[in-house]
UniProtKB/TrEMBL annotation:
This is Malate dehydrogenase. The active site is at 180 (proton acceptor). Residues 7-147 form the Lactate/malate dehydrogenase N-terminal domain. It catalyses: (S)-lactate + NAD(+) = pyruvate + NADH + H(+); (S)-malate + NAD(+) = oxaloacetate + NADH + H(+). Catalyzes the reversible oxidation of malate to oxaloacetate. It comes from the Bacteria. Pfam families: Ldh_1_C, Ldh_1_N. One of its GO terms (biological process) is lactate metabolic process. One of its GO terms (molecular function) is L-malate dehydrogenase (NAD+) activity. CDD domains: LDH-like_MDH (cd01339). NAD(+) binds at residues 12-17, 36, 100, 123-125. Residues 152-305 form the Lactate/malate dehydrogenase C-terminal domain. It is an enzyme of class 1 (oxidoreductase).
Length: 314
């Protein structure tokens, strides 16, 4: 039997979607279908063709197709959903909930039809609630519906720690738990540089500043860009998750998963450390938390619950 290449569909060919497509191709993780609305079919085809034509220069053979036709997404192994609107300065991610819920639901109806065995990764904001909306519409098992927040939030946190200590980002480890909002929970006790706990290397007031900068890290970029939100680091985060799945790497990454009792929460999609492998989320790790950490996670869970509740009437 011929060995098949993996197929990855990205719905939403805007900043995050197109950047993700390029990064997936650069790593030759599979063939890429970049899909957007019919009104943007030509620009989507143009982006895909432009990326394809970078292949001979960069040395990748991934096929990249731009389309608005869901039949092209048939039997995808992974579907990444970036469709929706992004926030502008002065907005919170939660302000996007009504518009993006409609978009995510309509996208998921198509995905359920054409790629019923796929593993779906959601990026659209507010992402914890959008992952719940996707799960509800797709009807897939919970291991195959995953939201992206923690890889990005942790990457920002690790960037700031590496800058503070002037060390390689490769030696920094950390974890950010909770919802993808300003009350997310960077776990200082589980953060280290070359195995050395950061609280033995950085003064408490500087750690507090790094934690706060991480929490509002998305907003910092929104403020600088002026007309949209981050896309390079979000795309890199999606690619890391896709790679963990496609290569069955069993990576331990913070992802948005359905919690059914873990950390004391039920019926809630929120960021927790999980094992990502060939079947999607293969395990959720429950870390021991101090009372203070648990209180911070409870606060974040409350925020996620209130934005997710908006969807129950839809
Ligand atoms: N979870 C996270 O960590 C992050 C989430 N985001 C979110 O990702 C989303 C996308 O961000 P960007 O790519 O910067 O926005 P963008 O505006 O550049 O691209 C969004 C694309 O979605 C398309 N789209 C809209 N409705 C669609 C539909 N029904 N079917 C197919 N495509 C559709 C638009 O035409 C547009 O091309 C936003 O909601 C943003 O807030 C962005 C960065 C990080
Ligand atoms: O901030 C935003 O709106 C986009 C996002 O989720 C992030 O960059 O973390």
């Amino acid at each position: 039997m011929a060995i098949q290449r993996s197929k990855i569909t990205i719905v939403g060919a805007g900043f995050t979607g197109a950047t993700t497509a390029l990064m997936l191709a650069q790593k030759e993780l599979g063939d890429v279908v970049l899909l957007d609305i019919p009104q943007l079919e030509n620009p989507t085809k143009g982006k895909a063709l432009d990326m394809l034509e970078a292949g001979p220069v960069q040395g990748y053979d991934s096929r990249i197709v731009g389309t608005s036709d869901y039949e092209e997404a048939a039997d995808s192994d992974i579907v990444i959903i970036t469709a929706g609107i992004a926030r502008k300065p002065g907005m919170s991610r939660d302000d996007l909930v009504n518009t993006n819920a409609g978009i995510v639901q309509s996208v998921c109806e198509q995905i359920r039809r054409v790629a019923p065995e796929s593993i779906v990764i959601i990026l659209s904001n507010p992402v914890d609630a959008m992952t719940w909306a996707a799960y509800r519409t797709l009807g897939f098992p919970k291991n195959r519906v995953i939201g992206q927040s923690g890889v990005l939030d942790t990457a920002r946190y690790c960037t700031f720690i590496a800058q503070e200590l002037n060390v390689s980002v490769e030696d920094v480890r950390g974890f950010v738990l909770g919802g993808h909002g300003d009350d997310m929970v960077p776990l200082v006790r589980y953060s280290s540089v070359g195995g050395i706990p950061i609280d033995t290397l950085i003064e408490p007031d500087r750690i507090a500043e790094i934690v706060q900068r991480t929490r509002v890290g998305g907003g910092e970029i929104v403020g600088l860009l002026g007309n949209g939100s981050a896309y390079y680091a979000p795309a890199a985060s999606l690619v890391q998750m896709a790679e963990a799945i496609l290569k069955d790497k069993k990576r331990v990454l913070p992802v948005i998963a359905l919690l059914e009792g873990e950390y004391g929460y039920r019926e809630l999609f929120m960021g927790v450390p999980a094992l990502l492998g060939g079947t999607g989320i293969e395990r959720i790790f429950e870390l021991e938390l101090t009372a203070e950490e648990k209180a911070a996670l409870d606060k974040s869970a409350d925020s996620v619950r209130s934005v997710t509740a908006v969807l129950s009437s839809q």
